[in-house]
Specification:
This protein is mainly α. The chain contains nine helices and no strands. 75% of the residues lie in helices and 0% in strands. About 7% of the residues have low confidence.
């Protein structure tokens, strides 16, 4: 078992205070996960403005749902389920198809991951690979793209993904295997 990091300790303390009704602590807890939540919502709905609104909506729903939170469980998978459900409801209600311009996708990826310190030619190559990957992710079924982002962009474990999506860990592993295979078929040059 790995040692608890300072960030994990802070998150646990903020969560405990939040469960005791401390709104300020809950706001800080959400700040810790804001970037991850926004990136995941953006992937699900495809529009930055909608993603921001849905993150705010999920934050309010999470605050209201805190009495049902099970102490001792990790916060982010629980919060992500709320955010994911808000995104799905938004997409169903608006009957939107996820469409993104390649330029917009590249801008969003740059905002999420600043590759400072690279040579200009490295930046161009990284941007091109990001475009190719973004295009391939957009062509995958939404469930595949979501699993890949949770595992590889957010760094969640199989267990955390299973808790987040409410499916068995074995199912996560088999679906990830299939999603990776589909992604490799779309973009063989990225391996």
């Amino acid at each position: 078992m790995s040692p608890v990091t300072l960030e994990q300790h802070e998150e646990e303390a903020l969560l405990e205070r939040s469960l005791d009704g401390d709104r300020e602590a809950f706001g800080r807890l959400l700040e810790l996960h804001h970037g991850r939540a926004l990136a995941l919502a953006l992937n699900l709905v495809g529009r930055r403005e909608d993603a921001r609104d849905l993150v705010q909506e999920a934050a309010l729903k999470a605050w209201r749902g805190l009495p049902g939170f099970v102490r001792g469980r990790p916060f982010f998978p629980w919060y992500y389920r709320i955010l994911r459900n808000a995104c799905i409801q938004h997409l169903r209600g608006a009957r939107l198809r996820r469409t993104r311009s390649l330029a917009g996708e590249a801008e969003e990826l740059r905002e999420l991951d600043d590759p400072s310190g690279l040579r200009p030619e490295d930046l161009v190559e990284a941007e091109e690979q990001s475009r190719i990957l973004a295009r391939a992710l957009a062509d995958l079924p939404r469930a595949d793209a979501e699993l890949l982002l949770l595992k590889h962009q957010q760094g969640l474990s199989y267990r955390e993904i299973a808790e987040t999506l409410g499916i068995p860990a074995g199912t996560v592993m088999s679906r990830l295997y299939t999603a990776r295979r589909r992604l490799r078929a779309l973009v063989p040059e990225l391996g």
